[in-house]
Amino acid sequence: MLDSVRARLTLWYVAMLALVLITFSIGVYILLAHSLHHRLDEGLKGGVDEIARLLAIERAEGESESEAGKNAVTEPYFPGKAVAVFDTAGHRIGEQITPGQSQAQIPPPSMVPTETIQLYDLAGDASSNGIARRAAVQRVTVPPTATVYIIVVNQSLTEMLEELALLRRIFYIAVPVALMLAGLAGWYLARKSLAPVVVMAERARQIGAGNLGQQLPVANPLDELGRLATAFNELLARLDAAFSQQRQFMADASHELRTPLYVIRTAVEVTMEQAHREEGEYRDALAIIGQQTRRLARIVEDMFTLARADAGRPALQPGDFYLDELLMETVRAAQVLAGRKGVAVELEPAPEISYRGDEGLLRQMFLNLLDNAIKSTPAGGEVRVSLGQRDSSYEVVVDDTGTGIPVEAQVRIFERFYRVDQARTRNESPGEGGAGLGLSIARWIAEAHEGRLELRHSDERGSSFIATLPL
Protein backbone atom coordinates (compact mmCIF):
# COMPACT_ATOMS: atom_id res chain seq x y z
CA MET A 1 0.00 0.00 0.00
CA LEU A 2 2.83 2.38 0.82
CA ASP A 3 4.14 1.87 -2.72
CA SER A 4 1.37 4.19 -3.87
CA VAL A 5 2.11 7.89 -3.99
CA ARG A 6 -1.52 8.55 -3.12
CA ALA A 7 -1.20 6.51 0.07
CA ARG A 8 2.04 8.19 1.09
CA LEU A 9 0.64 11.66 0.42
CA THR A 10 -2.49 10.83 2.40
CA LEU A 11 -0.49 9.44 5.32
CA TRP A 12 1.78 12.47 5.36
CA TYR A 13 -1.23 14.77 5.21
CA VAL A 14 -3.01 12.94 8.04
CA ALA A 15 0.17 12.79 10.12
CA MET A 16 0.80 16.52 9.78
CA LEU A 17 -2.86 17.28 10.50
CA ALA A 18 -2.77 14.98 13.55
CA LEU A 19 0.30 16.81 14.83
CA VAL A 20 -1.43 20.16 14.35
CA LEU A 21 -4.69 19.00 15.96
CA ILE A 22 -2.99 17.37 18.92
CA THR A 23 -0.84 20.43 19.50
CA PHE A 24 -3.88 22.66 19.19
CA SER A 25 -5.93 20.47 21.55
CA ILE A 26 -3.21 20.39 24.18
CA GLY A 27 -2.80 24.14 23.92
CA VAL A 28 -6.54 24.78 24.26
CA TYR A 29 -6.78 22.36 27.19
CA ILE A 30 -3.88 24.02 29.02
CA LEU A 31 -5.25 27.51 28.41
CA LEU A 32 -8.75 26.54 29.55
CA ALA A 33 -7.45 24.76 32.66
CA HIS A 34 -5.35 27.81 33.53
CA SER A 35 -8.35 30.09 32.97
CA LEU A 36 -10.65 27.96 35.15
CA HIS A 37 -8.07 27.77 37.93
CA HIS A 38 -7.53 31.51 37.75
CA ARG A 39 -11.28 32.19 37.83
CA LEU A 40 -11.71 29.82 40.80
CA ASP A 41 -8.86 31.46 42.71
CA GLU A 42 -10.21 34.92 42.02
CA GLY A 43 -13.61 33.84 43.33
CA LEU A 44 -12.08 32.47 46.50
CA LYS A 45 -10.05 35.64 47.02
CA GLY A 46 -13.15 37.72 46.41
CA GLY A 47 -15.00 35.73 49.09
CA VAL A 48 -12.22 36.26 51.61
CA ASP A 49 -12.11 40.00 50.88
CA GLU A 50 -15.89 40.26 51.19
CA ILE A 51 -15.90 38.54 54.61
CA ALA A 52 -13.08 40.77 55.82
CA ARG A 53 -15.01 43.86 54.72
CA LEU A 54 -18.19 42.70 56.47
CA LEU A 55 -16.27 41.91 59.66
CA ALA A 56 -14.93 45.44 59.72
CA ILE A 57 -18.43 46.85 59.24
CA GLU A 58 -19.92 44.65 62.00
CA ARG A 59 -17.19 45.59 64.44
CA ALA A 60 -17.55 49.25 63.58
CA GLU A 61 -21.25 49.00 64.43
CA GLY A 62 -20.33 47.71 67.90
CA GLU A 63 -21.08 44.04 67.43
CA SER A 64 -19.20 41.62 69.65
CA GLU A 65 -16.45 39.42 68.29
CA SER A 66 -18.65 36.38 67.97
CA GLU A 67 -21.71 38.22 66.70
CA ALA A 68 -19.62 40.02 64.10
CA GLY A 69 -18.28 36.66 62.85
CA LYS A 70 -21.75 35.14 62.60
CA ASN A 71 -23.32 38.14 60.86
CA ALA A 72 -20.46 38.44 58.35
CA VAL A 73 -21.04 34.97 56.94
CA THR A 74 -24.84 34.84 57.12
CA GLU A 75 -25.82 38.12 55.49
CA PRO A 76 -24.17 37.65 52.03
CA TYR A 77 -24.67 34.65 49.77
CA PHE A 78 -21.67 32.67 48.48
CA PRO A 79 -22.97 30.21 45.86
CA GLY A 80 -21.00 27.00 45.60
CA LYS A 81 -18.62 27.97 48.41
CA ALA A 82 -18.19 26.95 52.03
CA VAL A 83 -17.27 29.92 54.25
CA ALA A 84 -16.13 29.91 57.89
CA VAL A 85 -14.71 32.43 60.36
CA PHE A 86 -12.44 31.27 63.19
CA ASP A 87 -10.87 33.03 66.13
CA THR A 88 -7.19 32.77 66.93
CA ALA A 89 -7.83 29.74 69.10
CA GLY A 90 -9.32 27.90 66.15
CA HIS A 91 -12.91 28.02 67.35
CA ARG A 92 -15.51 28.27 64.61
CA ILE A 93 -17.40 31.54 65.11
CA GLY A 94 -19.60 31.49 62.06
CA GLU A 95 -20.02 29.60 58.83
CA GLN A 96 -22.13 29.28 55.69
CA ILE A 97 -22.57 26.04 53.82
CA THR A 98 -24.42 25.85 50.54
CA PRO A 99 -26.30 22.66 49.64
CA GLY A 100 -23.93 19.83 48.78
CA GLN A 101 -20.89 21.59 50.25
CA SER A 102 -18.81 20.37 53.18
CA GLN A 103 -17.63 22.56 56.02
CA ALA A 104 -14.66 24.82 55.63
CA GLN A 105 -11.89 23.49 57.82
CA ILE A 106 -9.17 25.63 59.36
CA PRO A 107 -5.67 24.60 58.36
CA PRO A 108 -2.88 24.29 60.91
CA PRO A 109 -2.13 27.73 62.43
CA SER A 110 1.43 27.60 61.12
CA MET A 111 0.04 27.58 57.56
CA VAL A 112 -2.13 30.65 58.02
CA PRO A 113 -0.30 33.69 56.63
CA THR A 114 -0.49 37.20 58.02
CA GLU A 115 -2.32 39.85 55.96
CA THR A 116 -2.03 37.77 52.77
CA ILE A 117 -4.33 35.24 51.18
CA GLN A 118 -2.98 31.73 50.75
CA LEU A 119 -4.47 29.30 48.25
CA TYR A 120 -4.07 25.55 48.57
CA ASP A 121 -5.68 22.28 47.49
CA LEU A 122 -7.49 19.87 49.75
CA ALA A 123 -7.57 16.19 48.88
CA GLY A 124 -10.90 14.42 49.08
CA ASP A 125 -11.62 12.62 52.37
CA ALA A 126 -14.62 11.31 54.32
CA SER A 127 -15.58 14.78 55.55
CA SER A 128 -15.84 16.06 52.01
CA ASN A 129 -17.35 12.91 50.50
CA GLY A 130 -14.10 12.26 48.67
CA ILE A 131 -14.34 15.50 46.68
CA ALA A 132 -11.16 17.50 46.16
CA ARG A 133 -11.47 21.17 47.01
CA ARG A 134 -9.64 24.44 46.55
CA ALA A 135 -9.34 26.69 49.61
CA ALA A 136 -8.27 30.22 50.46
CA VAL A 137 -7.29 31.33 53.99
CA GLN A 138 -6.27 34.69 55.47
CA ARG A 139 -5.62 36.08 58.92
CA VAL A 140 -7.18 39.57 59.21
CA THR A 141 -7.04 42.19 61.96
CA VAL A 142 -10.28 44.14 62.30
CA PRO A 143 -10.35 47.59 63.94
CA PRO A 144 -11.15 49.31 66.21
CA THR A 145 -10.09 46.72 68.79
CA ALA A 146 -7.63 44.94 66.52
CA THR A 147 -9.59 41.71 66.75
CA VAL A 148 -7.92 38.90 64.84
CA TYR A 149 -10.02 36.53 62.71
CA ILE A 150 -9.11 33.65 60.44
CA ILE A 151 -11.23 33.47 57.30
CA VAL A 152 -11.49 30.24 55.31
CA VAL A 153 -13.29 29.89 51.98
CA ASN A 154 -13.24 26.73 49.90
CA GLN A 155 -14.96 25.42 46.83
CA SER A 156 -15.30 22.03 45.22
CA LEU A 157 -13.16 21.30 42.16
CA THR A 158 -15.85 19.04 40.75
CA GLU A 159 -17.34 21.58 38.35
CA MET A 160 -13.98 22.61 36.97
CA LEU A 161 -12.83 19.01 36.62
CA GLU A 162 -16.06 18.10 34.87
CA GLU A 163 -15.60 20.92 32.39
CA LEU A 164 -12.07 19.76 31.66
CA ALA A 165 -13.23 16.15 31.40
CA LEU A 166 -15.93 17.20 28.95
CA LEU A 167 -13.35 19.03 26.88
CA ARG A 168 -11.13 15.96 26.88
CA ARG A 169 -14.01 13.78 25.72
CA ILE A 170 -14.74 16.27 22.95
CA PHE A 171 -11.13 16.12 21.83
CA TYR A 172 -11.06 12.31 22.07
CA ILE A 173 -13.98 12.15 19.66
CA ALA A 174 -13.40 15.21 17.48
CA VAL A 175 -9.72 14.64 16.70
CA PRO A 176 -10.08 11.05 15.41
CA VAL A 177 -13.22 11.97 13.45
CA ALA A 178 -11.43 14.99 11.95
CA LEU A 179 -8.44 12.84 11.05
CA MET A 180 -10.67 10.20 9.47
CA LEU A 181 -12.53 12.80 7.42
CA ALA A 182 -9.24 14.48 6.52
CA GLY A 183 -7.80 11.12 5.48
CA LEU A 184 -10.76 10.41 3.20
CA ALA A 185 -10.62 13.93 1.78
CA GLY A 186 -6.85 13.68 1.38
CA TRP A 187 -7.15 10.34 -0.41
CA TYR A 188 -9.79 11.77 -2.72
CA LEU A 189 -7.77 14.92 -3.44
CA ALA A 190 -4.54 12.96 -3.94
CA ARG A 191 -6.33 10.59 -6.29
CA LYS A 192 -7.89 13.45 -8.21
CA SER A 193 -4.60 15.41 -8.31
CA LEU A 194 -2.59 12.38 -9.45
CA ALA A 195 -5.15 11.21 -11.98
CA PRO A 196 -3.21 12.94 -14.81
CA VAL A 197 -0.11 10.99 -13.72
CA VAL A 198 -2.01 7.72 -14.06
CA VAL A 199 -3.18 8.76 -17.53
CA MET A 200 0.36 9.78 -18.49
CA ALA A 201 1.74 6.47 -17.18
CA GLU A 202 -0.77 4.48 -19.23
CA ARG A 203 -0.04 6.54 -22.33
CA ALA A 204 3.72 6.30 -21.78
CA ARG A 205 3.40 2.49 -21.43
CA GLN A 206 1.87 2.40 -24.92
CA ILE A 207 4.66 4.42 -26.53
CA GLY A 208 7.47 2.49 -28.16
CA ALA A 209 10.14 2.98 -30.77
CA GLY A 210 7.54 2.76 -33.52
CA ASN A 211 5.19 5.46 -32.25
CA LEU A 212 7.40 8.07 -30.62
CA GLY A 213 5.34 10.70 -32.38
CA GLN A 214 2.57 10.24 -29.82
CA GLN A 215 2.50 12.66 -26.91
CA LEU A 216 1.25 12.68 -23.36
CA PRO A 217 -1.91 14.66 -22.60
CA VAL A 218 -1.28 18.05 -20.98
CA ALA A 219 -4.27 19.15 -18.91
CA ASN A 220 -2.72 22.34 -17.56
CA PRO A 221 0.65 23.37 -18.98
CA LEU A 222 1.19 25.85 -16.15
CA ASP A 223 1.16 23.46 -13.17
CA GLU A 224 3.83 20.97 -12.13
CA LEU A 225 2.22 17.98 -13.83
CA GLY A 226 1.69 20.00 -16.98
CA ARG A 227 5.34 21.01 -17.04
CA LEU A 228 6.32 17.36 -16.44
CA ALA A 229 4.16 16.22 -19.34
CA THR A 230 5.55 18.99 -21.55
CA ALA A 231 9.12 18.05 -20.66
CA PHE A 232 8.35 14.38 -21.38
CA ASN A 233 6.80 15.29 -24.72
CA GLU A 234 9.90 17.28 -25.58
CA LEU A 235 11.99 14.25 -24.64
CA LEU A 236 9.85 12.08 -26.90
CA ALA A 237 10.32 14.58 -29.71
CA ARG A 238 14.09 14.48 -29.25
CA LEU A 239 14.05 10.69 -29.15
CA ASP A 240 11.87 10.59 -32.25
CA ALA A 241 14.29 12.92 -34.02
CA ALA A 242 17.24 10.80 -32.86
CA PHE A 243 15.59 7.57 -34.01
CA SER A 244 14.65 9.18 -37.31
CA GLN A 245 18.20 10.43 -37.73
CA GLN A 246 19.52 6.97 -36.88
CA ARG A 247 17.16 5.28 -39.36
CA GLN A 248 18.07 7.85 -42.01
CA PHE A 249 21.73 7.38 -41.20
CA MET A 250 21.44 3.61 -41.61
CA ALA A 251 19.49 3.98 -44.85
CA ASP A 252 21.97 6.49 -46.28
CA ALA A 253 24.93 4.44 -45.08
CA SER A 254 23.49 1.33 -46.69
CA HIS A 255 22.97 3.23 -49.93
CA GLU A 256 26.48 4.65 -49.92
CA LEU A 257 28.06 1.29 -49.10
CA ARG A 258 25.97 -0.55 -51.66
CA THR A 259 27.32 1.40 -54.63
CA PRO A 260 31.04 0.56 -54.21
CA LEU A 261 30.20 -2.99 -53.20
CA TYR A 262 28.09 -3.37 -56.34
CA VAL A 263 30.92 -2.00 -58.46
CA ILE A 264 33.41 -4.39 -56.85
CA ARG A 265 31.10 -7.39 -57.29
CA THR A 266 30.40 -6.43 -60.90
CA ALA A 267 34.12 -6.05 -61.67
CA VAL A 268 34.88 -9.46 -60.16
CA GLU A 269 31.99 -11.21 -61.94
CA VAL A 270 32.85 -9.69 -65.32
CA THR A 271 36.51 -10.58 -64.92
CA MET A 272 35.73 -14.16 -63.87
CA GLU A 273 33.27 -14.83 -66.73
CA GLN A 274 36.14 -15.99 -68.94
CA ALA A 275 38.79 -18.48 -67.88
CA HIS A 276 41.67 -16.47 -69.38
CA ARG A 277 42.07 -12.71 -69.81
CA GLU A 278 44.87 -10.38 -70.68
CA GLU A 279 47.03 -9.00 -67.89
CA GLY A 280 45.80 -5.49 -68.66
CA GLU A 281 42.20 -6.54 -68.08
CA TYR A 282 43.10 -7.98 -64.69
CA ARG A 283 44.96 -4.80 -63.82
CA ASP A 284 41.97 -2.65 -64.81
CA ALA A 285 39.67 -4.79 -62.65
CA LEU A 286 42.05 -4.60 -59.73
CA ALA A 287 42.35 -0.83 -60.17
CA ILE A 288 38.56 -0.47 -60.02
CA ILE A 289 38.43 -2.71 -56.95
CA GLY A 290 41.21 -0.70 -55.29
CA GLN A 291 39.45 2.60 -55.95
CA GLN A 292 36.16 1.35 -54.56
CA THR A 293 37.92 -0.23 -51.59
CA ARG A 294 39.54 3.10 -50.75
CA ARG A 295 36.12 4.74 -51.03
CA LEU A 296 34.65 2.09 -48.73
CA ALA A 297 37.45 2.61 -46.24
CA ARG A 298 36.87 6.36 -46.23
CA ILE A 299 33.10 5.97 -45.75
CA VAL A 300 33.58 3.48 -42.92
CA GLU A 301 36.14 5.71 -41.24
CA ASP A 302 33.83 8.72 -41.50
CA MET A 303 30.93 6.71 -40.13
CA PHE A 304 33.09 5.56 -37.22
CA THR A 305 34.02 9.16 -36.48
CA LEU A 306 30.37 10.20 -36.46
CA ALA A 307 29.46 7.22 -34.28
CA ARG A 308 32.00 8.43 -31.73
CA ALA A 309 30.45 11.89 -31.91
CA ASP A 310 26.95 10.50 -31.34
CA ALA A 311 28.13 8.59 -28.31
CA GLY A 312 29.18 11.85 -26.65
CA ARG A 313 32.14 14.13 -26.94
CA PRO A 314 35.16 11.80 -27.19
CA ALA A 315 38.31 12.40 -25.25
CA LEU A 316 40.46 14.65 -27.37
CA GLN A 317 44.19 14.18 -27.56
CA PRO A 318 45.34 17.76 -27.13
CA GLY A 319 48.84 18.81 -27.91
CA ASP A 320 50.81 21.97 -28.59
CA PHE A 321 51.50 22.83 -32.23
CA TYR A 322 51.53 25.78 -34.61
CA LEU A 323 48.20 26.33 -36.27
CA ASP A 324 49.72 28.15 -39.24
CA GLU A 325 52.07 25.22 -39.95
CA LEU A 326 49.21 22.69 -39.73
CA LEU A 327 47.17 24.77 -42.18
CA MET A 328 50.16 25.08 -44.51
CA GLU A 329 50.67 21.28 -44.56
CA THR A 330 46.97 20.75 -45.22
CA VAL A 331 46.97 23.21 -48.13
CA ARG A 332 50.05 21.55 -49.57
CA ALA A 333 48.31 18.16 -49.47
CA ALA A 334 45.15 19.60 -51.04
CA GLN A 335 47.15 21.17 -53.87
CA VAL A 336 47.95 17.67 -55.17
CA LEU A 337 44.24 16.85 -55.63
CA ALA A 338 43.45 20.34 -56.91
CA GLY A 339 46.26 20.20 -59.47
CA ARG A 340 44.72 17.19 -61.23
CA LYS A 341 41.47 19.11 -61.54
CA GLY A 342 43.07 22.38 -62.62
CA VAL A 343 42.09 24.31 -59.47
CA ALA A 344 44.53 26.61 -57.70
CA VAL A 345 44.74 26.50 -53.88
CA GLU A 346 46.41 29.46 -52.20
CA LEU A 347 47.18 30.19 -48.56
CA GLU A 348 47.37 33.82 -47.60
CA PRO A 349 50.31 34.83 -45.41
CA ALA A 350 49.45 34.03 -41.79
CA PRO A 351 51.14 34.98 -38.52
CA GLU A 352 52.80 32.37 -36.37
CA ILE A 353 50.09 31.03 -34.03
CA SER A 354 50.71 28.57 -31.23
CA TYR A 355 47.65 26.46 -30.45
CA ARG A 356 46.65 23.56 -28.19
CA GLY A 357 44.19 21.03 -29.52
CA ASP A 358 43.81 17.68 -31.26
CA GLU A 359 46.11 18.09 -34.23
CA GLY A 360 44.81 15.01 -36.06
CA LEU A 361 41.16 16.04 -35.86
CA LEU A 362 41.89 19.62 -36.89
CA ARG A 363 43.91 18.38 -39.89
CA GLN A 364 40.89 16.28 -40.89
CA MET A 365 38.59 19.29 -40.54
CA PHE A 366 40.75 21.47 -42.76
CA LEU A 367 41.13 18.67 -45.35
CA ASN A 368 37.37 18.17 -45.46
CA LEU A 369 36.79 21.90 -46.01
CA LEU A 370 39.39 22.05 -48.76
CA ASP A 371 38.13 18.85 -50.38
CA ASN A 372 34.60 20.25 -50.43
CA ALA A 373 35.82 23.56 -51.91
CA ILE A 374 37.89 21.83 -54.61
CA LYS A 375 35.02 19.55 -55.65
CA SER A 376 32.62 22.47 -56.02
CA THR A 377 35.10 24.60 -58.00
CA PRO A 378 35.36 24.06 -61.78
CA ALA A 379 38.68 23.84 -63.63
CA GLY A 380 40.46 27.18 -63.73
CA GLY A 381 38.90 28.25 -60.44
CA GLU A 382 40.64 29.18 -57.22
CA VAL A 383 40.41 28.26 -53.54
CA ARG A 384 41.84 30.73 -51.02
CA VAL A 385 42.57 29.99 -47.37
CA SER A 386 43.27 32.60 -44.70
CA LEU A 387 44.09 32.47 -40.99
CA GLY A 388 43.57 35.35 -38.60
CA GLN A 389 42.58 36.37 -35.12
CA ARG A 390 39.48 38.28 -34.08
CA ASP A 391 38.58 39.12 -30.50
CA SER A 392 39.07 35.92 -28.48
CA SER A 393 39.19 33.39 -31.29
CA TYR A 394 41.10 32.30 -34.38
CA GLU A 395 39.31 32.24 -37.73
CA VAL A 396 40.11 29.98 -40.67
CA VAL A 397 38.30 31.09 -43.82
CA VAL A 398 38.03 28.89 -46.95
CA ASP A 399 36.77 30.74 -50.05
CA ASP A 400 36.18 29.18 -53.46
CA THR A 401 35.05 30.47 -56.84
CA GLY A 402 32.59 27.66 -57.49
CA THR A 403 29.01 27.90 -58.66
CA GLY A 404 27.72 28.33 -55.14
CA ILE A 405 25.17 26.42 -53.14
CA PRO A 406 21.44 26.82 -53.87
CA VAL A 407 19.58 28.80 -51.25
CA GLU A 408 17.25 25.91 -50.42
CA ALA A 409 20.24 23.63 -49.84
CA GLN A 410 22.28 25.96 -47.63
CA VAL A 411 20.40 24.98 -44.47
CA ARG A 412 21.11 21.27 -45.10
CA ILE A 413 24.73 21.20 -46.15
CA PHE A 414 25.87 20.07 -42.69
CA GLU A 415 23.43 17.14 -42.66
CA ARG A 416 24.90 13.68 -42.95
CA PHE A 417 24.96 12.08 -46.40
CA TYR A 418 23.53 15.23 -47.93
CA ARG A 419 25.05 16.27 -51.23
CA VAL A 420 24.00 19.33 -53.13
CA ASP A 421 24.54 18.01 -56.66
CA GLN A 422 23.87 14.27 -56.92
CA ALA A 423 24.41 14.31 -60.66
CA ARG A 424 27.88 15.79 -60.27
CA THR A 425 28.75 13.09 -57.75
CA ARG A 426 27.73 10.32 -60.06
CA ASN A 427 29.95 11.76 -62.80
CA GLU A 428 33.07 11.74 -60.63
CA SER A 429 35.77 9.20 -61.13
CA PRO A 430 35.28 5.91 -59.33
CA GLY A 431 36.65 6.08 -55.82
CA GLU A 432 36.66 9.86 -55.72
CA GLY A 433 32.97 10.47 -54.88
CA GLY A 434 32.22 11.53 -51.36
CA ALA A 435 29.44 10.25 -49.14
CA GLY A 436 28.24 13.64 -47.93
CA LEU A 437 29.86 13.28 -44.51
CA GLY A 438 32.77 15.69 -44.79
CA LEU A 439 31.03 18.87 -43.62
CA SER A 440 29.20 17.02 -40.83
CA ILE A 441 32.50 15.72 -39.50
CA ALA A 442 34.15 19.12 -39.88
CA ARG A 443 31.41 20.83 -37.86
CA TRP A 444 31.64 18.17 -35.15
CA ILE A 445 35.41 18.64 -34.88
CA ALA A 446 34.99 22.40 -34.53
CA GLU A 447 32.35 21.95 -31.81
CA ALA A 448 34.53 19.38 -30.04
CA HIS A 449 37.13 22.16 -29.70
CA GLU A 450 34.39 24.51 -28.37
CA GLY A 451 34.36 26.35 -31.66
CA ARG A 452 31.95 26.46 -34.59
CA LEU A 453 31.82 26.02 -38.37
CA GLU A 454 29.48 28.13 -40.47
CA LEU A 455 28.68 28.93 -44.07
CA ARG A 456 29.34 32.65 -44.22
CA HIS A 457 27.86 33.20 -47.66
CA SER A 458 27.30 31.40 -50.97
CA ASP A 459 26.16 32.75 -54.33
CA GLU A 460 27.01 32.45 -58.01
CA ARG A 461 30.47 33.90 -57.32
CA GLY A 462 31.41 31.14 -54.88
CA SER A 463 31.10 30.03 -51.28
CA SER A 464 32.86 30.96 -48.05
CA PHE A 465 33.16 28.75 -44.95
CA ILE A 466 34.54 30.04 -41.66
CA ALA A 467 35.85 27.88 -38.83
CA THR A 468 36.18 29.61 -35.47
CA LEU A 469 38.42 28.19 -32.75
CA PRO A 470 38.75 29.70 -29.28
CA LEU A 471 42.07 31.06 -28.16
In short:
With 471 residues, the protein is α+β, with helices and mostly antiparallel strands. 54% of the residues lie in helices and 18% in strands.
CATH architecture of the largest domain: 2-Layer Sandwich
Strands ordered across the widest β-sheet: 2-1-5-4-3
User: Radius of gyration, rounded?
Assistant: 52 Å
Biggest sheet, open or closed, and with what strands and sense? 5 strands, antiparallel
Helix and strand composition category: alpha+beta
Number of strands: 12
Number of domains: 3
Strand content: 15-25%
How far apart, in Å, are the first and last alpha carbons? 59 Å
Query: Given this structure, which CATH class of the largest domain is correct?
Result: Alpha Beta
What's the SSE pattern? HHEEEEEHHHEHEEHEEHHHEE
Shape summary: rod-shaped
Number of helical stretches of at least 4 residues: 10
Helix content: 40-55%
Low-confidence stretches: 422-432
Indicate the mean pLDDT. Answer: 81
CATH topology of the largest domain, what is it called?
Beta-Lactamase
